[in-house]
Specification:
This protein is an alpha+beta fold. The chain has one domain: Beta-Lactamase (2-Layer Sandwich). It is 43% helix and 17% strand. It has five helices and four strands. The chain has helices spanning 2-14, 33-50, 77-92, 96-104, 142-154; strands spanning 55-60, 65-70, 122-127, 130-138. The protein has a four-stranded antiparallel β-sheet. The longest helix is centred in the first third of the chain and has 18 residues, at 33-50. 37% of the residues are buried. This is Heme-binding protein.
Length: 161
Amino acid sequence: MRWVTVAVLAALVFSGSGGFAAESVTQKYALTLEGAKRVAAAAETEAFKNKWNVVIAIVDDGGNLLYLQRLDGTQASSSETATRKARTAALFKRPTKVLEDAVAAGRVSLLSLPNMTPIEGGLPLVYKGEIIGAIGVSGATPQQDAQVAKVGADTLLPLPQ
């Protein structure tokens, strides 16, 4: 009897009257590993050009690490810092510089929020108007980190068909 009840409930849930309507789901873009590598390669080129030893971290829209690149000579702590900058930019959907400025202006309560690293150098990655991830860079000055991140983020354009 129990299996019959479960089968009837399952049929009701997935039928037209109780199932998912088209308005209940959406399609979205997702950053691929190939896309993350393209962003990191552009950022790496900018870092090499300026002789800055940095770590480049790329996360998806949920802040999960997709790709990490630590250039030779970069201090080990920058791996975690770059990842945290990227995670902050993805989860808060804004550059980490905006959050750094807010803290500097007195909004120190932001520091109590989870996944908050308000240090310049993290930028959302935007594709066709959607945030699909973020890049975080650490190892140089915050302004230099941001410059490297921007070059990487700016390469994320639609590929030619």
